[in-house]
């Protein structure tokens, strides 16, 4: 798995280098594969000093700062657009629909991806799935006050769910936005857009971890033998 992450990050860097020859505005997602990309970026890229970086989470901001890469806040965007966005995923279907948010940064990741002209997603091959929802639950970011209502509505819809608990601390996981995460067990999803809409209509749901294929421009898949495959959205 580790070699697959490194391979995917290396493939993403090759694409990034072509897009960002003279410096650009860059959005960076979250997760272990993204951290591999940050390592490669900091060691090899002359574009870093000429670029602006927007981070999706405090964890990513810390990872960037450790490598000497400074970040800026999205509200400082001049033309409200990011040139290129790089992020990972927890599960990817054959149709390039994705589930994200295992690290709890799904809302900010969705915001940065929506602001971006070109989106590169990187995964190791274990994240591939014939149908979304077969391997992982759908993270849902919830306003804390609305949690009882959200859980009631999820039960009414027939979904299993778990309020995500923190590791090394008591109580629920709290996102960088001050919200809770509910992991929703949908089972295999035939229509990701419909499920996303169904969940976001619940009062108190801020965002879901379903990223339909419209969020993807290119997917880089890394393999344990060190190779990678680039898949462009058709």
Q: How are the SSEs ordered, and which strands pair?
A:
Layout: H1 2-19, E1 25-28, H2 32-44, E2 52-55, H3 58-66, E3 82-87, E4 91-93, E5 98-99, H4 106-115, E6 116-124, E7 128-129, E8 138-142, H5 147-156, E9 160-163, E10 180-185, H6 192-200, E11 205-208, E12 210-211, E13 218-222, E14 228-232
Parallel strand pairs: 1-2, 1-3, 3-6, 4-7, 6-13
Antiparallel strand pairs: 4-5, 5-12, 8-10, 8-11, 9-10, 13-14
Helix pairs in contact: 1-2
How would you characterize this protein structure?
The protein has 234 residues and is of the alpha/beta class. The chain has 2 domains: 2-130 and 212-232, Rossmann fold (3-Layer(aba) Sandwich), CATH 3.40.50.1360; 138-207, Alpha-Beta Plaits (2-Layer Sandwich). 29% of the residues lie in helices and 26% in strands. The protein has 6 helices and 14 strands. It has a 6-stranded mixed sheet, sandwiched between helices. It has a 4-stranded mixed sheet with strand order 7-4-5-12, with helices on one face. A 4-stranded antiparallel sheet has the order 9-10-8-11. Helix 1 crosses helix 2 (32-44). 46% of the residues are buried.
Search tags:
Rossmann fold; globular; 6-stranded mixed beta sheet; Alpha-Beta Plaits; 4-stranded mixed beta sheet; 6 helices; 234 residues; alpha/beta; 14 strands
Number of helices: 6
Task: Kindly estimate the percentage of residues that lie in beta strands according to DSSP.
Answer: 25-35%
How do the helices and strands follow one another from N- to C-terminus? HEHEHEEEHEEEHEEHEEEE
Structural class: alpha/beta
Biggest sheet, in brief? Answer: 6 strands, mixed
Q: At the first level of CATH, what is the class of the largest domain?
A: Alpha Beta
What is the average per-residue confidence, as pLDDT, rounded to a whole number?
Answer: 93
Rough outline: globular
Architecture (CATH level 2) name of the largest domain: 3-Layer(aba) Sandwich
Distance between the terminal alpha carbons, to the nearest Å? 27 Å
The largest beta-sheet arranges its strands as: 2-1-3-6-13-14
Number of DSSP-assigned strands: 14
Q: pLDDT under 50 segments (min length 5)?
A: none
**How many domain regions?**
2
Helix content: 25-40%
CATH topology of the largest domain: Rossmann fold
Rg calc = 17 Å
């Amino acid at each position: 798995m580790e070699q697959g992450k490194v391979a995917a990050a290396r493939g993403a860097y090759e694409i990034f280098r072509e897009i960002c020859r003279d410096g650009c505005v860059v959005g960076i997602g979250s997760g272990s594969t993204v951290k591999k990309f940050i390592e490669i970026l900091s060691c090899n890229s002359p574009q870093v000093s000429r670029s602006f970086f927007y981070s999706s989470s405090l964890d990513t901001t810390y990872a960037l700062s450790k490598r000497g890469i400074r970040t800026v806040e999205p509200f400082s965007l001049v033309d409200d657009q990011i040139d290129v966005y790089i992020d990972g995923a927890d599960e990817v279907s054959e149709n390039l629909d994705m589930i994200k948010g295992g690290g709890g940064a799904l809302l900010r990741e969705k915001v940065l991806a929506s602001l971006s002209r070109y989106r590169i997603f990187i995964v190791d091959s274990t994240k591939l799935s014939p149908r979304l929802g077969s391997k992982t639950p759908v993270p849902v970011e919830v306003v804390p006050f609305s949690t009882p209502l959200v859980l009631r509505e999820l039960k009414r819809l027939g979904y299993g769910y778990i309020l995500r608990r923190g590791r090394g601390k008591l109580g629920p996981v709290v996102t960088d936005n001050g919200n809770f995460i509910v992991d929703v067990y949908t089972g295999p999803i035939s229509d990701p857009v419909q499920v996303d809409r169904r969940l976001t209509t619940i009062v108190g749901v801020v965002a879901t971890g379903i990223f339909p294929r419209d969020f993807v421009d290119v997917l880089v898949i890394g393999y344990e033998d060190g190779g990678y495959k680039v898949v462009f959205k058709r």
